[in-house]
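[Solved] Which block belongs to which protein?

Original post:
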Amino acid sequence: MAQVQESVDVNVPVRTVYNQWTQFESFPHFMDGVVSISQLDDTHNHWVTKVGGVTREFDTEITEQNPDERVAWKAVGGDTQHAGVVTFHRLSDDQTRVMIQIDWEPSGLVEKAGAAVGVDDHRVKADAKRFKEFIESRGGDETGAWRGSVDADVTGSSN
């Protein structure tokens, strides 16, 4: 299994950064290779990606979500195997550290070779930088928010 870790400091309050991150349908604005994300319900999303000429569709489930702290997910069904967590750390009233960790199983020769030489690391680093530019360029104004919680012990339910 491959693992990618990245962090970026964003000059926006933690609440705003978290709120924007919960707007999954905005991810194509800053994530290379993400064609679209459709939010199916509070805890499920459908992704369409195109990387290296390969288009994939898969669903994810939010397994834990705590406002202003963390969002964790995993792929469900299909042939894509990955999981991740993003945590949000208040550095000051107007600065937040976003920490991203993704674990995934590369499939096929091209993905395995890419993981071996760090293509994934570079992609996530570039995506984190584009997220920073995206949210900061909005003047600290998120495109929306979902402030609900998902308890890790009761996957799939929301409060």
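(Second protein starts here: sequence line, then its structure tokens.)
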Amino acid sequence: MAAGADITFACRCGAVSGTLHDVRPAEGTHVVCHCQSCARAMTLSGLADEASSGVDLWQTTPDRIEITTGIDQLTPVRLSPKGLFRWTAQCCDTPMFNTFPGPGIPFAGVLTRILSDPAPLGPIIAHGFVTGPNGKQRHQNGSRVIWRMLKRTAAAKLGGKGRQTPFFTADGTPIAPPQLAPKAD
């Protein structure tokens, strides 16, 4: 199979930048998340308007992410004591990536707003946490997203790429101490 595109990314001020490698629809899942946590994370960074229609993400494995400048500016922010790590560029308060709190599950959500060209991601294939007319939340193509994530993370672990991550040290410690976001009003 042919290699995918390499796409550059950067925070709002450009201090944190890098490359997302081998981008193609088969190597990630293009989704839009409508959950309250994603919306809150964007709101905390002054991007509430962007969150109103959902947060556009490309789910992949961390070994595809190369941070070339400003890694010292990345900080994991948690919305709750046990929540996801939402990696934010502290220099300009740009939300950039989501990971689990440790490297055990090789998963990274890349906020597509930081990419120079999101076209190679392919079409959006799912929407999560969509509020229906009855007020209940549901997922569109949720089982497809879960299946693709399980396949990717298992392949990364079995193929030896599972611990290749710019977010954690070799012993599994985050590269910066996690911060807890202020409580929601």
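Accepted answer:
You had them paired correctly. Confirming on the second one: The first helix runs from residue 36 to 44.
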